[in-house]
Amino acid sequence: MSNVFVFDHPLIQHKLTYIRDKNTGTKEFRELVDEVAMLMAFEITRDLPTSDVEVETPVTTSKSKVLAGKKLGLVPILRAGLGMVDGVRKLIPAAKVGHVGLYRDPETLKPVEYYVKLPNDIKERELIVIDPMLATGGSAIDAIGALKKRGAKNIRLMCLVAAPEGVKAVQEVHPDVDIYLAALDERLDDHGYIVPGLGDAGDRLFGTK
Ligand code: PRP
Ligand code: URA
């Protein structure tokens, strides 16, 4: 079974409070999501392997470390996942970015795939699937499935807020995928919204309704 990490760093939790607040407007919401994504990226990459190199400082030779192992790839689920990509890229600027387009049918709550464009070497990359919301889990399950179908082997899932139902569903279908969250909320409501949640992440990020 995969691991679930909930980041309780005070900066992440402080910013998440204002992200949740219904009075936070689009500009501030977008900025806060970007900042939390960057802070989460710092935590998510904590276990990346490093190797030793020698570097000439202006004073002497120093044994130092550089990232080793697989290259990274970021895969936001359109559209709300886009709101977190730049924050992650601030820390991992060389990561390639693929896109999976899914929307959740409001009647069935089932995800509908409309776009997939990925780096051609995803098999060799450590991929981070990015979406602010993990509700029923259907979108994340299908997005991860779309990556695996194309050969991806090393996948992590990064979300701001999750419902326990979504976490369980992802773990059942993709037990190899670790899940990284800023918050694990109480439940889903009858419309598949996360409670207490933050509302519709895509609409709040892009100012649509
Ligand atoms: C939201 C959210 C997730 C999905 C989560 O996207 O960004 O992708 O719902 O719900 P689930 O876990 O029940 O699948 P939405 O379908 O609203 O599309 P959008 O990103 O284009 O707004
Ligand atoms: N998608 C959202 O944007 N918010 C939710 O609470 C659930 C799904």
TrEMBL record:
Residues 6-208 form the Phosphoribosyltransferase domain. The lineage of its organism: Bacteria, Bacillati, Bacillota, Bacilli, Bacillales. Keywords: Allosteric enzyme, Glycosyltransferase, GTP-binding, Magnesium, Nucleotide-binding, Transferase. Binds 1 Mg(2+) ion per subunit. The magnesium is bound as Mg-PRPP. The gene is upp. This is Uracil phosphoribosyltransferase. Pathway: Pyrimidine metabolism; UMP biosynthesis via salvage pathway; UMP from uracil: step 1/1. HAMAP family: Upp_B. It comes from Oceanobacillus oncorhynchi. Uracil binds at residues 194, 199-201. InterPro entries: PRTase-like, PRTase_dom, Upp_B, UPRT, UPRTase/APRTase.
